[in-house]
Amino acid sequence: MEKENKKVINRLRRAEGQLRGIQKMIEDEQECIDVITQLSAVRSGIDRVMGMIMAENLKNCFIDPENDPEEQAKKLEQAINMIIKK
């Protein structure tokens, strides 16, 4: 779990750096297409982080299920709904 958290934190830091770079691009009045390209890269990175977190949580639901089957079903349903919304 600690290894996965480190991966998530590293990806979030990368996105944070990209966002700071985008702010500088806007301040420097860079081309719109370049700003949009970088924003798209940040969005993709955040989507990957969300996927990593959801996958880890789903895996934990199966490896370490809740004592209450109804609570387990509720958590799985929430995870499925989050995936489908995407």
Automatic annotation (TrEMBL):
Any matching Pfam family: Trns_repr_metal
GO MF annotation list: DNA binding; metal ion binding
Highest taxon in the source lineage: Bacteria
Any GO BP annotation: negative regulation of DNA-templated transcription
InterPro entries membership: Metal_Tscrpt_repr (IPR003735), Metal_Tscrpt_repr_sf (IPR038390)
PANTHER family in UniProt: TRANSCRIPTIONAL REPRESSOR FRMR, TRANSCRIPTIONAL REPRESSOR FRMR-RELATED
Stated name of the protein: Metal-sensitive transcriptional regulator
